[in-house]
Design brief:
single chain, 127 residues, mainly alpha, 6 helices, 0% strand, elongated
Amino acid sequence: SIALDRHNRDVFEQLAAAGSRIEQLDAADLTRWLRATYTQFDTLLVEEEAELAEIAYPELAFHRTLHEHACNITRAARLQLARPDSAGLVAVLALESCAALPFWLMRHVMDLDQLFFPDNDARHRVT
């Protein structure tokens, strides 16, 4: 949908800003920014799943499994941020996670979401 496309773009832009955020923010502010970015990313996946459920997408369970792989990235990053010594690691974590997430999302949008188009097209056809 147009809303999901916009959210995808917003998430890509957030993740692309990691380098400048690392330069501008101290460890505490960078940690807050990362947590908010991970939440934005996870919310995008939930919104996509809701949209797919709304149209009774037949491969929704498989799609959720794919999303779980991305959630594992944000979950692991959050665990790293919770470590007592995370202040020294936050810049590295930002670089790593903000590189892994857009790579996953790009592959997902380009490759896997192509499976969604036949159902999406059927929903919007006028008979």
